[in-house]
Amino acid sequence: MSESKCPYAQSNVAGGGPKNRxxxxxxxxLDILRQNGVASDPFGADFDYAKEFKSLDYNALKAxxxxxxxxxxxWWPADFGHYGGLFIRMAWHSAGTYRVFDxxxxxxxxxxxxxxxxxxxxxxNLDKARRLLWPIKQKYGSKxxxxxLMILAGxxxxxxxxxxxxxxxxxxxxxxxxDESVYWGSETSFFPEGRDKRFASGPSLEKKYGKxxxxxxxxxxxxxxxxxxxxxxxxxxxxxxPVAAAHDIREAFGRMAMNDEETxxxxxxxxxxxxxxxxxxxxxVGPEPEGASIEQNGLGWKNSxxxxxxxxxxxxxxxxxxxxxxxxxxxxxxxxLFGYEWELVEGPGGAPQFVAKNAENIIPDAFDKSxxxxxxxxxxxxxxxxxxxxxxxxxxxxxxxxxxxxxxxxAWFKLTHRDMGPRILYLGPEVPKxxxxxxxxxxxxxxxxxxxxxxxxxxxxxxxxxxxxxxLVSVAWASASTFRGSDKxxxxxGGHIRLSPQKDWEVNxxxxxxxxxxxxxxIQTSFNESQTTGKRISLAxxxxxxxxxxxxxAANAAGVRAVVPFIPGRADATQEQTDVEQFNYxxxxxxxxxxxxxxxxxxxQEQTLVDRAHLLKLSAPELTxxxxxxxxxxTNFDGSSHGILTSRPGVLTNDFFVNLLxxxxxxxxxxxxxxxxxxTDRKSGAKKWTxxxxxxxxxxxxELRALxxxxxxxxxxxKLVTDFVAAWAKVMNLDRFDLx
Length: 740
Ligand code: HEB
Fold this sequence. Notes:
- By secondary structure, the chain is mainly alpha-helical.
- It has helices at 20-23, 49-54, 58-69, 84-95, 126-140, 146-160, 203-206, 211-215, 242-254, 260-270, 332-339, 379-386, 388-399, 401-417, 452-463, 469-480, 510-530, 539-557, 580-584, 605-615, 620-633, 655-660, 693-700, 702-712, 716-732; strands at residues 342-346, 352-356, 363-364, 372-373, 376-377, 665-669, 676-681, 687-692.
- The strands form three sheets. A three-stranded antiparallel beta sheet has the order 1-2-5. Strands 6-7-8 form a three-stranded antiparallel beta sheet. Strands 3-4 form a two-stranded antiparallel ribbon.
- The two termini are 51 Å apart.
- It binds heme B/C.
- The site of heme B/C (HEB) has 25 residues, from helix 4 and helix 10.
């Protein structure tokens, strides 16, 4: 491999030189399963951020933040003497990377401190915003995370600019390294290059970024360009077309769970305050923080134009001030949007932007009191008038500022809290009382919980109900495994598996699911009706209990005694509490644990498996033992025998590993996709097994093979049961934030 051919063979660790990831970029990597381990956390495993946050003097912190807003620093002077616009943009860009399909991104981990986000072109000069916050972060230490501080700074900015927010919740614990689990797109260059790679090609592309084009944005991406939070402010590929921009906005904001009204409110609200920065062409701007030299102390985008700051600052290269009071909340955005006709012009760097026609110079300058400007807008701002649906909403907001204010307050709260999980995780004195549908509410428990004896008798009843071990385990897995650590949605609590849309997902085998649920409902009803003390069991609990009883029984059948811990306390949500569209985003494209899903051109089955394991917060050993155990128990979504490498399906044996590593079997791909394989007896040629990539990866990827060997070796049967039970219980309880 010559250096010119392999630009990546420069890994800057351990003396440099190519590493495995350089030599074999295709090798399945498990790193994301080890991410955020104790080795990277200075506070260790016992650190309890919630406890720290509760000891914070919240009001003092807010007062310090408020004072900071107008405490202009010479090294980065505040526009109009107020940092509010900058901090709002920082908070919005922190939260705005969230996307519905995998729940990744978002402001929950303070990831803006790390690459790639720290250095995305769209995050230009937000390094300054975070650096301005440093003295406050330093003062409050571990009582306030960067993740919380960045969002709170946005809230305080709004409040100090005359806006009444909907509230604030703390609780975002920091991480200490870059989150490498996020697929940000396959482009190898940042904005402004490479937009179209993430859009399906075809005739729609030629239609100049019309509707179809925008709608074919690759899943799970949330932005139209690599390195942008959402969309190109100049319209798709700088085409200056506000209608096309609207299609992109709708698609990108939809990926963040925002509807049209929320989208209009957010954009108009955000651009009611602050300004853009484009004093001169960006040829004056140096490398982003990750690419900058060491003596810049982590800052980037060093600007050689005149003073390089204040009036000479260059961020987006656009030069727009939207409103007459850029440091005070108003309805100016809509008043100007409809009060003027707009003319397309070139900004200082040559980028398209709009200026109000025949307008007087009514807009203040950020640094020179004697100067005034005409109203200006970005192409994406004009989209709020050019798109017929957005226009209706914008005109309503123009006439009804109260509705605008309320919509922005709610949308801002949703934007900044969307990835925090259930309300039980919200901390602090400003948590709103109102319960919101997007929080996936689950009713409070108002019954007595079952105890030891009830649990024993319920288990007996379940195991005598005629339902197979495989079915019971499948349904419990289906219920709990929707959980994702990314945005803390999903999981067994709420019993959503019995509701639309989950009950109809292909991966859940709807027919089998309905059969199991009807039996469990019968058991639930008869138990609850027979109680005289007010004791009840929810179906959500019973589904987990049934799976756990089945796991115990499967272990017993393998000759190993096992007790699966069960903690009651889950409640059943109603259909009305369940946002069907938003729950559908939890639907797995692939779930290797149930042998569901195919390789795509970009992603192979085994990659989806690691992705899912990451969302389930599993380590590589946990992933391995769960696959081995679930295959032994026979839980493929469609009842197929792929990977069921055992003659005793339904028994919790280590057969999967023993047979997978058995050299008497020879494996061959049987389909062109290379997702399905057949194992034959090396000598006789007799057909023995079928398996998928999800299965064979445990014999081929060296780290997974090493783990598989553990469970196939002497003592492996006992260890498999012990480890499987622990990993199973972990998955069942992933969403039990009430237990912590
Ligand atoms: Fe924005 C700014 C774009 C949305 C808020 N923004 C800005 C800028 C741009 C933009 C380009 C400039 C930067 C500089 O500095 O230069 N946006 C944009 C787009 C969108 C948006 C494209 C989509 C359509 N925003 C938004 C939202 C919000 C915002 C949603 C919130 C809510 N922004 C903002 C602010 C600002 C901005 C506040 C200002 C900043 C300062 O002042 O610094």
